[in-house]
């Protein structure tokens, strides 16, 4: 009579492999973080006002708040994907910082969209897209906080992953702009909206894939 074999217990990933995803996320943040630091440096150094940066000098508060929140949100948030750190108190402590940082980044993004006199190519459909993703990011963070207060870690993780994916949109948009830049084409309202929207869309698809993969794991392995 054949004996039944138990399924082998899942092996934990090696320490090096655990850092692959966080490292990639940090790399994705590099260009937006540098660009944000450059903008703040312009304001601090009282750089010459140009048509391209005049709106930031006219109303610097939302820009500075946005950069000061979004940069650490993207970098610090990457460490939430390290399994060893998720099992420690560090995850909860950093999460208490990430929620307000993410909310600030989202709401100041909406603020700038409504307040700033943006270039013509950033008007039209892109205004609607920015308002939608900004509001969605804020809503996802609130839903994630409410879920963890109910001790519903699965839904908490899902909402926070979705919010983080939106927050990382600027990094992915570097790549979604490349086809037009490499072709030497100039952006207009439709192409600019497509390039920007594609960055958020790609991240949303990856986020949903990660959430589905997470739900397929055993409860002990789930992101929390």
TrEMBL record:
The keyword Membrane applies. Pfam families: DUF2306. Keywords: Membrane, Transmembrane, Transmembrane helix. The chain crosses the membrane at residues 20-41, 61-85, 97-116, 128-148, 160-181, 193-211. InterPro entries: DUF2306_membrane. This is DUF2306 domain-containing protein.
